[in-house]
Specification:
Layout (H helix, E strand, L loop, with lengths): L18 E2 L2 H10 L3 E7 L2 E7 L1 E4 L2 E7 L3 H6 L1 E17 L7 E15 L3 H15 L12 H6 E7 L2 E7 L17 E4 L24
Antiparallel strand pairs: 1-9, 2-3, 2-6, 4-5, 5-8, 6-7, 6-10, 7-8, 7-9
């Protein structure tokens, strides 16, 4: 698996020891994440929108209504910056200056283009659905022709990108190590709760995607 392409705009300049060009690690983070923040500019004004996404091999998939600002702007190939971050822990140091967080993040830059073919767009929407919950696209009704016409899928190559992460405990100054202040890491995880059925589905068994 070839490394990610690093350029001046994706190269990590602050604490570069935390950066990676490991494509497999980037995919691991993208597959675990659920929300991407998509940045783009319209008429000189910046916008950052949180979005559901999906990974289709070496491509990141985004979707939205045809009338949305993102689709109208990026569909023709306007540059975008997509960030996915996983928060793994709070790092509590003896001094407030050295408090931090453990995290894993991916930043992808490039041009997002619209998927024009209806069949391919439908397949991409299945990928997006299965990123929310693996196997879900086989259980629920897929988009009909009207819904397909109302929805666009944008494709962003995962090429120019960087990975940055922090692990481990606090890094206090030597003169602070004897302070009577608790220090350490509070791990953070996202866990699924008990499914809450919608009205009208009482009595139906949980689908395979949930079990």
């Amino acid at each position: 698996m070839k490394p990610l392409t690093t350029t001046d705009r994706t190269r990590v300049k602050r604490q570069p020891d935390r950066s990676r060009d490991d494509r497999a690690l980037a995919y691991e983070i993208l597959d675990e994440g659920r929300v991407a923040h998509v940045g783009f500019a319209v008429d000189g004004s910046p916008f950052v929108i949180p979005m559901v996404y999906g990974r289709d091999d070496d491509r990141l998939l985004l979707h939205g209504a045809k009338a949305s600002r993102l689709v109208r702007t990026t569909g023709a190939g306007i540059p975008v910056c997509v960030t996915v971050t996983l928060l793994d822990g709070l790092v509590l140091a003896r001094s407030t200056f050295h408090h931090s967080m453990n995290y894993r993040s991916v930043v992808i830059m490039g041009e997002a283009h619209r998927v024009e073919d209806d069949d391919e767009r439908g397949r991409c929407l299945d990928v997006l659905t299965d990123h929310i919950l693996p196997g879900r696209s086989a259980e629920a009704r897929g988009p009909n022709r009207v819904e397909l016409r109302q929805t666009d899928v944008l494709v962003l190559p995962i090429e120019e990108a960087s990975v940055k992460l922090r692990t481990g405990g606090p890094k206090d100054d030597p003169e602070d190590l004897d302070l009577p202040v608790w220090a350490g890491v509070v791990p953070l995880t996202v866990t699924a709760g008990t499914p809450i059925p919608d009205d009208g589905v009482d009595g139906l068994p949980l689908p395979a995607a949930l079990t």
